[in-house]
């Protein structure tokens, strides 16, 4: 736990972000719990209701590049405060929705606010406090946020039973303004200049410029892995059923995935700063194509499905940490904020596109269609990670050894 000892402020910011990210991610999972109620009340099909999440991700992606300068100029704290104020009306709009247009308008508000508050802003805030040492702090935060559905799905169900889905939306708006906003305003740290191990201010000598081609590789590897992880996660139950598993078996295996993903993140977290995001990505990324080939060749054997869940869960869980921390290898402070904001555009678009695309391949060509595409993308991801490993800046390369 060296990273906690190095800066006591990191403990405070992690507590703030653990609470606010749990609430922010947990509340947007509303359709997963009350989707059928939403569909019946609004006269929409269930797929149309879940399309609200796609609207969220597309909006987040489109807004993210515009926030790059705001993060660099004003710091994550102020931007996340504004994002929270923008998000809360989204739930109020959902409360008043009586038709699809207003329903999707609510998700647009949530996407605009989410581009400032969901994950990207949190990682930038941790980078402001710890610089390149933020990797393990980000891993620790992801351990908590990985539990958002486990905590908020039953919470949403309970609130819906008490107040209905519309009342639940108002409760969510109050939580954002009554909990998240004060935590950002009064508890979250203000930006400071990161210091090195000798407590000296980092010299104002600009590091060598990172080539644009390197940024392209970083953005590509993060986007491609997000496409695979978000897509497979969305269709996993149907994918396993297409492999011949009974519905109850598919659900049982699918439910194991989240636990394995969080466990893999925990192992990376316990590793401290002994390896960087590229190393994590190479190890984790290699597990994904192995898992997919095994499932494609197994013809639905129970042992193979269990091995697939173990390998894919561990690989995708650790790759979640890698997606957030690979930019730390190349960028620091303001450059990191700019890079993360720019990467958020393709990342969120891929997150929105992959579930319906893979679902379509699964429907038209069976499990081999969906697995074939994700296998190709996963192999390409590993190759790009190898290239990035060769482009490590000297400082990052020394830290990774």
TrEMBL record:
Signal peptide: none
Record-annotated membrane-spanning stretches: 12-34, 46-67, 79-97, 103-126, 138-159, 165-187, 215-237, 279-297, 303-331, 369-388
Keyword set includes Protease: no
Molecular functions (GO terms): transmembrane transporter activity
Pfam family, one: MFS_1
Stretches assigned to the Major facilitator superfamily (MFS) profile domain: 13-393
Keywords noted in UniProt: Membrane, Transmembrane, Transmembrane helix
Presence of the UniProt keyword Transmembrane helix in the record: yes
Gene3D superfamilies per UniProt: MFS general substrate transporter like domains
Listed name of the protein: MFS transporter
Species: Bradyrhizobium manausense
């Amino acid at each position: 736990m060296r990273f906690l000892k190095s800066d006591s402020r990191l403990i405070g910011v992690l507590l703030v972000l653990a609470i606010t990210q749990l609430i922010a991610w947990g509340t947007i999972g509303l359709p997963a719990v009350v989707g059928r109620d939403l569909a019946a009340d609004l006269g929409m099909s269930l797929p149309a209701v879940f399309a609200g999440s796609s609207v969220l991700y597309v909006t987040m992606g489109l807004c993210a590049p515009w926030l790059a300068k705001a993060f660099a100029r004003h710091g994550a704290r102020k931007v996340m405060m504004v994002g929270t104020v923008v998000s809360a009306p989204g739930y109020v709009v959902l409360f008043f929705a009586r038709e699809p247009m207003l329903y999707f308008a609510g998700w647009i508000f949530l996407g605009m606010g989410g581009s400032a508050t969901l994950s990207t802003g949190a990682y930038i805030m941790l980078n402001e406090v710890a610089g390149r040492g933020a990797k393990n702090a980000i891993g620790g935060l992801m351990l908590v946020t990985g539990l958002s559905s486990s905590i908020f799905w039953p919470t949403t169900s309970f609130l819906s039973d008490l107040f209905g889905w519309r009342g639940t939306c108002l409760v969510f708006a109050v939580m954002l303004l009554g909990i998240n906003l004060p935590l950002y305003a009064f508890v979250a740290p203000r930006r400071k200049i990161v210091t090195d191990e000798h407590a000296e201010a980092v010299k104002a000598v600009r590091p060598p410029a990172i080539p644009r081609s390197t940024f392209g590789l970083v953005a590509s590897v993060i986007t491609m892995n997000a496409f695979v992880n978000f897509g497979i996660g969305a269709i996993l139950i149907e994918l396993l059923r297409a492999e011949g598993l009974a519905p109850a078996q598919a659900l049982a295996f699918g439910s194991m995935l989240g636990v394995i993903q969080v466990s893999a993140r925990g192992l990376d977290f316990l590793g401290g700063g002994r390896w960087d995001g590229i190393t994590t990505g190479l190890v984790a990324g290699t597990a994904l194509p192995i898992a997919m080939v095994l499932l494609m060749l197994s013809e639905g054997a129970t042992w193979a499905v269990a091995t697939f869940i173990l390998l894919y869960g561990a690989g995708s869980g650790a790759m979640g940490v890698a997606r957030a921390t690979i930019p730390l290898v190349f960028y620091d402070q303001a450059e990191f904020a700019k890079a993360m904001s720019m990467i958020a555009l393709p990342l969120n678009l891929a997150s929105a596109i992959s579930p319906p695309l893979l679902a379509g391949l699964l429907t038209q060509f069976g499990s081999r269609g969906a697995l074939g595409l994700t296998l190709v993308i996963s192999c390409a991801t590993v190759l790009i990670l190898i290239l990035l490993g060769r482009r490590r800046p000297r400082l990052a390369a020394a830290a990774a050894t």
